[in-house]
Amino acid sequence: MTEPTxxxxxxxxxxxxxxxTVTFEPRRCLHAGECVRGLPSVFDLAERPxxxxxxxxxxxxxxxxxxxxxxxxxxxxxxxxxxxGDVPTTVRRMPDGRLLVRGDLLVRDERGGRHETRxxxxxxxxxxxxxxxxxxGACADAGFEAFDATEER
Length: 153
Hints:
The chain has 153 residues and is of the alpha+beta class. It has helices at 34-38, 58-65, 139-142; strands at 13-17, 20-24, 73-77, 90-93, 99-109, 112-121. Strand 5 (99-109) and strand 6 form a beta hairpin.
């Protein structure tokens, strides 16, 4: 596999706050809503920018970002390592075929591989954002089953 070209790189937005940077990849977002329910002072869709990591303690921001099942939201602390994947790695198949994956992951596609900590992978083959789910296949009619951050993993 070859490294992706600049045009093939995913579009990722960065939001800096004191002690933490939050990144957002729009194509990966499945609108589970864990962010806006978990910390509305930081994640507010009515504001621009909609992510304001300086509105809460970095530890709280990181905790809520880790609830994002798709991995569209990620974080980097200013004074430490990037987000680490869950150990052990877990894979949960949803009734509509999607795979919720958490761990130290290397997700490969035709553009190469990406290290991930969380991802929702397409189980039906219809996604236009392979291997990630984009709700264009069987799960589009089924609706998104909310990710429960308190559930044992």
